[in-house]
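Fill in residues.
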């Protein structure tokens, strides 16, 4: 620990955001990073305390507390404080293959578990991570370092999201020859076509993919494994196959009128915008446009928030977000103490923008859709919604949300975006390899393992654990790489943490 009184001397600072009404004029990232000097002060706030939950990544009350990658947070905070940026990068890359992604999109489980945050403001860990990786690119530390020795073993990774990329990166560093197959036209999975450009500018992905290519990883895009390439061929051509295809089945809302024109899944809406943005700066008109529309987003979570921000940038007439659950408290409840993940209400960037543009929070709580209303041409023209309340189920004793009798009302809408989560792996890929799915329709493995029921076939990421976070996908990618390496070589020195 560099500065014993750092947490008393300096206030928490994070990158300044461009004002909502200004940033909605484009799809660019909108944070101005701290200067190096300011970042050093933020590093000094870390007390390298005796109970660094920030790096624990352990489950408490069913939720992760601390960084799932076990990033060596206090170590690199100290190195940032003392200005040892290269060393800080070396420590960071030991546990995290993609700080350029996590330092932009991670919900920062580390900060929620930071000891400083117990009584005051947590250390700006995510910000420090961002400073370290961006400095590494500037200074050339993050340049390609191809492995010196090749093992001659070949691994195919199916899916180029963060799980597949982390597995590929680890196995390539180990000297195996890795090919990543991707169904889409660009590499990155939901990092590319899911998370909007203003949260993660796509040049950041391309920058890392170019490094990975220089290091020897081959990327094959526009190739749908199980359809364009047969599973049997991959099993013949490669020593091991890793399935990292994500949890791509969106949860639907099966209310009457679902066939109305104007209802889309959130991920299709977000993908179409990013694709058009990258291909033509939105001039090709090949995206689902919310311009002038009265949009209702079903789902109050992070994906719903990304839709709010995107709709506003399109020029929507109004944006409403429906959430089934009640609003979370503003501060931790007594039964949700530190260092548990705080179940508190947050106003994310899209909601901030909606407040600035429309004058109110777009979220309506304890409400769901009962019917989609159509005009005579089959176009969506409104919604019948109903209020919900929490009640104990007499049979199971569990609390559940039930309709409040007589609470139905109508709402104007000519566009609906369904952001109600995902239901698991797409079956055709699993079937192509003959791998078993579990009850949650994720690919089945033993607990804590990545080997499937089919010889030489492994799995990781959302396809294995269900819809999750980038940081968990990277962790699974690292863990599957170690298991695959062990199976190929009889031992492995690849670190998972
Ligand atoms: C809109 C949205 C916003 C999100 N925002 C955040 C966020 O801010 N922070 C965060 O931490 N998490 C966020 N998440 C969650 C996070 O993106 C995922 O948990 C993570 O990307 C999962 O990584 P993955 O590698 O397992 O799968 P994915 O990222 O889903 O990648 C799977 C890849 O496999 C490819 N594929 C599938 N089948 C085949 C096939 N047969 N052949 C070839 N390729 C195939 C797909 O095209 C895809 O590119 C968000 C999710 C969504 C939907
Ligand atoms: S990856 Fe996420 S949880 Fe881990 S240190 Fe970075 S911001 Fe924190």
């Amino acid at each position: 620990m560099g500065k014993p009184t750092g947490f008393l001397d300096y206030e928490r600072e994070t990158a300044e955001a461009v004002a909502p009404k200004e940033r909605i004029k484009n799809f660019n990232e909108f944070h101005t990073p701290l200067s190096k000097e300011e970042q050093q002060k933020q590093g000094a706030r870390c007390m390298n305390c005796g109970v660094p939950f920030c790096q624990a990544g352990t489950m408490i009350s069913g939720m992760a507390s601390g960084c799932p990658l076990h990033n060596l947070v206090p170590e690199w905070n100290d190195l940032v404080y003392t200005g040892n940026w290269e060393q800080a990068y070396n420590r960071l890359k030991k546990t995290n293959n993609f700080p350029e992604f996590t330092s932009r999109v991670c919900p920062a489980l580390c900060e929620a578990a930071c000891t400083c945050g117990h009584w005051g403001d947590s250390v700006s860990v995510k910000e420090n991570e961002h400073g370290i990786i961006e400095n590494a690119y500037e200074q050339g530390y993050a340049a390609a370092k191809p492995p010196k020795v090749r093992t001659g073993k070949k691994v195919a990774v199916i899916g180029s999201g963060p799980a597949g990329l982390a597995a590929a990166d680890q196995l390539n560093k180990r000297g195996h020859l890795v090919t990543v197959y991707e169904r889409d036209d660009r590499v990155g999975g939901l990092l590319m076509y899911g998370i909007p450009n203003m949260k993660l500018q796509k040049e950041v992905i391309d920058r890392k993919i170019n490094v990975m290519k220089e290091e020897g990883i081959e990327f094959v895009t526009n190739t749908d494994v199980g359809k364009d390439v047969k599973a049997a061929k991959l099993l013949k051509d490669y020593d091991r196959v890793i399935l990292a295809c994500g949890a791509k089945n969106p949860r639907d809302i099966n209310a009457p009128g679902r066939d109305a024109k104007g209802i889309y899944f959130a991920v299709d809406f977000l993908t179409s915008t990013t694709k058009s943005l990258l291909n033509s700066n939105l001039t090709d008109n090949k995206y689902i446009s919310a311009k002038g529309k009265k949009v209702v987003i079903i789902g109050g979570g992070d994906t719903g928030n990304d839709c709010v921000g995107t709709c506003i940038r399109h020029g929507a007439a109004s944006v409403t977000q429906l959430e089934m659950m009640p609003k979370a408290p503003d501060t931790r409840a007594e039964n949700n103490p530190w260092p548990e993940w705080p179940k508190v209400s947050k106003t994310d960037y899209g909601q901030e923008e909606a407040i600035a543009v429309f004058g109110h929070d777009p979220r309506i709580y304890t409400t769901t859709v009962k019917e989609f209303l159509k005009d005579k041409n089959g176009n969506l023209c409104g919604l019948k919604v109903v209020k919900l309340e929490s009640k104990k189920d007499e049979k199971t004793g569990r609390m559940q949300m039930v309709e409040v009798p007589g609470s139905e009302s109508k709402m104007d809408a000519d566009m609906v975006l369904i952001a109600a989560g995902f239901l698991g792996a797409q079956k055709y890929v699993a079937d192509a390899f003959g791998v078993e799915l579990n009850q949650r329709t994720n690919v089945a493995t033993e607990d804590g393992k990545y080997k499937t029921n089919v010889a030489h076939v492994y799995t990781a990421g959302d396809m294995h654990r269900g819809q999750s976070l980038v940081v968990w996908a990277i962790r699974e990618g690292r863990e599957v790489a170690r298991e695959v390496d062990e199976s190929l070589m009889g031992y492995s020195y690849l670190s998972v943490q």
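Residues 67, 69, 71, 73, 96, 102, 106, 108-110, 125-126, 129, 471 surround iron/sulfur cluster (ligand 2) (CB under 6 Å).
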